[in-house]
Amino acid sequence: MKFNQLTIVLFIVLSFSKITAQEFKLGKVSIPELQEKVHAKDTSASAAILFRKGTSYFEYDPVDGFVIITEVESRIKIYKKEGYEWANQGVRYYIGDSNTKESVSFSDAVTYNLVDGKIEKTKLKSDGTFDENFNKYYNKKKITMPNVKEGSVIEYKYRIKALTIGSMRDWYFQTSIPVNYSEFITRIPEYFVYNNKQKGYIFPKVNKETSTKYIVFNNKERSGGRNLGTTFSQDKLEYQEEKTTYTAENLPAMKEEAYVNNINNYTSCLELELSMTKYPNQPMKLFSTDWNSVVKTIYNYESFGPELNKTGYFEDDLKTLLAGVDVQDDRINLILNFVKARVKWNGYTDYGCDNGVKKAYKEKTGNVADINLMLTAMLRHSGLTANPVLVSTRSNGISIFPNRTAFNYVIAAVETPNGIILLDASDKYSTPNILPFRALNWMGRLIRKDGTSEEIDLMPKIVSANNVSMIYNVDASGNVSGKTRKQYTNYNAMMFRDNIGDVKEDAYLEKLENDNNKIEISEYSRTNEKDLLLPVIETFSFSGNNLCEIIGDKIYIDPMLFLTDKKNPFTQENREYPVDYGFPSSDKYSINITIPDGFAVETLPASGGFAMENDLGLFKFISSVNGNILQVVITHQINEPVILPDDYSVLKEYYKGMIAKENEKIVLKRI
Predict the structure, then answer these.
(1) What is the pLDDT of residues 468-502, one digit of tens each?
(2) Largest CB tally within 10 Å, which of 17, 299, 301, 439?
């Protein structure tokens, strides 16, 4: 039987339509879904979400009042072994006080395989479900699906009951694998108004409809008198419920790229936070309608504003600390270092105190808010104009929309005639205006005592330098020996100190040797390791017999040796996300090379350079020869902490040119 080209095309289309026109209902897995070898639109995908459906709705509980129930159903196709991780699913839930705790349960979890042309089902057993402690605030309910292979399809359902109605669960339409179909439904009674915030570059279709619902109240009354008895009755409350359905199809995988702040910032997602309640016969109550109302609400929390007013626990110590110190910068540094030494960070982030400032001061440990609200209070008490700044950490995402959950961190700010100084005492290596990297997340929100607030730019303006000087000799056999001196400033210094903080020197040197072409290091030393206001300097001697290449009677040398960049971090054709370095930087390499007797320079990379448009960056390469001494000076400068996608092509070409130039070889010939 012969098939013409049209018949083949129609066959493919019809076969694909059978796969994609799947039933979005658990238990209806099809043979074509199990037969599918690769994803139709992303052949590199290790797995794909065939469908994911969620519904968040309100139930009335006689004890707890309105609670939010969220039910989610998923079907996932496993294409490759790398996709097996999708057989492990987990849902985080809050385990705080009894008024706000959550519960999670899984059901209908089944793995499907195609065996001898028939569908084989393997149900999840009880030993495949377990709880894992995430931290003191959260647990995670987890499942491990059974009998998962390449080609498997897995299904599961879970249900979350939340006693707090302040916000609904975020719904991510996209994830790190393709999503064929995603649907999220909210059913909200007329008593609640939620802010709807959509992130990402893909927006779902939205459909709304309204219906009438009822709450039935069961009443029980006992009658008095001689004839005791109990009567039962029911009251029915009618209300309007708005059902909103969000749907999206054929969503591409979100893939990590170099220098991405937090990929969730750019992932298609829906967030809903309570902005108003309007119960019958009660005045309307407003919540997060704008930033001013958000910060006012936060400031009035018992764990925030009132903690700033507590001073008695530190007054005597602060008086002793600041005796005779009148210079503003000295007072700031003394208070910052005192808090850092007094209270250690317990690893938890929040803008609200956990232990409270007094207890944290006494027990010498606390969360970020305990530490930095304490710092703010001390700065105020010393006569400085200090206020807290709400921050969303890089892992928490960018705080774009007004809502109380946009922030999860707080730092201190001192207003001076020369500008605002930002401080964070939770990190032992921080200094004024050098915050932990986790806090460098675009904009924060400064809150003053009078309830006003303003946006604060968290991104550094000061350049962090990496200055390297290298002197080395090359012998006639291509062996290299020399000395290197590295100086790190500002954020580069902070990251260096953090990297070496808990590492023994022997382990550090072994890694340094292995990471740099197996060089041998000797005479290693560091300067200013503990003095945080000064640059860190490390020096060492090195040698290596594989740092040059000998071909015939010629020696080929990379001028930067083991410091040469080999690969462009920006390889994609286009980019949708900003390139986020975190801070402006400058790398400068001053290199002196002594060539061996009996050799002369045949080729020396020519001097040159180029700059990016809009003063985003600059590269310079300067070379010269003086007898048997070669000199090379290389400068690579990035002037902005964040470069927007519109400038990606310029940045990509900049790196391409820089790496090509750095990899041009010096060629020595025997004479």
Answers:
(1) 999 999 999 999 999 999 999 999 999 999 999 98
(2) 439
